[in-house]
Design brief:
The protein is mostly helical. Helices cover 45% and strands 10% of the residues. A hairpin with a 2-residue loop joins strand 1 (4-8) and strand 2.
Length: 340
């Protein structure tokens, strides 16, 4: 074994060959004795084939670009854009603290970053943001740029409601449908309640996507829109939607427009929230229509597997977050069917 140590910019670097391959990297220490111990440890781990060493000197900014590139075919454009915004903001804040390389992101820095998130966001939003960052670091571990994910060492954020409890009651649905008749998005609200489609899916739904004869709705990827999972799916056309789609079955283009123009997502959301505030509905957003659909499907005893398929959930695990809503008489009491 022949380990060479060289000092560069106050830090000691190791350099050795093993099995015909050269390994060289910083020991991250200014002390030669510590550098020897560090280099010996690396040599032993390689010798024992515990892990493969590679050049980990990659800028945080470069790895973010690499990470996003690998996500392009797995995420919708909107979700990819959201991840890009969050990770680029994280990069800027890290650079403000003189953090340039991905391996220099410490747990201490992440704890401070988490606290700043909680000052300006709800706990759930902060958790989702950290989740995106954690996924990036998980990717870095997989590619062996770092040995462990620092985000996993953060303290758990308290005060997050795990189950998605807020959904519209039947009385609230009746009130909302009546009040929305005076607004341009009235038909979208009805379709949202009876399909559970996401906002983007509703806005981009076209009359050509609905087969009134087969009574099916096709949620499709399009040139300027992809579903959150990038997967297409088919929904049953509820009988209460037949009239709207049959009446418009010869039309083409977007199902929901304002003065003939496509709907603006942010404007639509703000207008809907204002309507709900006027009705004194608390903690309601356009996405609540989706929660309402999923919740009432489960309450009425529809199979969780079928609901997950309709909702476009990748697994039933997400749908199971609504499990507390299932009516005891129709689902929980299935246990009584056992008779030994």
């Amino acid at each position: 074994m022949n380990i060479i140590l060289r000092k560069r910019k106050k830090k000691w670097h190791y350099d050795f060959n093993l099995n015909g391959k050269r390994y060289r990297e910083s020991t991250h220490t200014e002390t030669k004795e510590l550098a020897k111990l560090y280099a010996q440890k690396i040599y032993n781990e390689i010798y024992l084939n515990k892990h493969h060493i590679k050049n980990t000197n990659i800028l945080l900014s470069e790895f973010i670009q690499l990470h996003l590139k690998t996500q392009e075919n797995n995420l919708s454009r909107m979700w990819l854009y959201t991840k890009k915004q969050i990770l680029n903001k994280f990069k800027i804040i890290a650079q403000e603290q003189s953090i340039e390389f991905i391996q220099d992101v410490s747990v201490e820095f992440l704890e401070k970053y988490k606290m700043e998130l909680l000052k300006n966001n709800k706990p759930k939003t902060a958790q989702n943001t950290l989740g995106i960052i954690q996924t990036m670091f998980k990717h870095a571990v997989k590619l062996k740029y770092i040995q462990e994910n620092p985000v996993t060492q953060l303290d758990i954020i308290r005060g997050i409601q795990k189950n998605k409890q807020r959904y519209l009651t039947k009385e609230e649905i009746e009130t909302l449908l009546k009040a929305s008749k005076e607004h341009y998005f009235k038909d979208l609200v009805v379709v949202g309640i009876y399909t559970g489609m996401r906002r983007g899916e509703l806005i981009n739904l076209c009359f050509e996507d609905v087969d009134t004869k087969k009574k099916l709705i096709y949620v499709k990827n399009k040139e300027n829109f992809t579903t959150k999972s990038r997967k297409e799916r088919v929904l049953p056309l509820h009988q209460n939607l037949h009239q709207f789609f049959n009446h418009n079955k010869h039309k083409k283009g977007y199902c929901f427009t304002k003065n003939g123009d496509p709907l603006n997502p942010k404007t639509l959301t703000l207008k809907f929230i204002k309507l709900c505030n006027d009705l004194d509905f608390k903690e309601i957003s356009l996405h609540t229509l989706r929660h309402t659909f999923i919740s009432w499907c489960l309450i009425e005893g529809i199979s969780i597997f079928k609901v997950a398929k309709w909702a476009g959930h990748s697994t039933t695990h997400i749908t199971e977050l609504y499990g507390h809503l299932c009516a005891e008489e129709k689902t929980q009491r299935d246990i009584d069917k056992l008779n030994f």
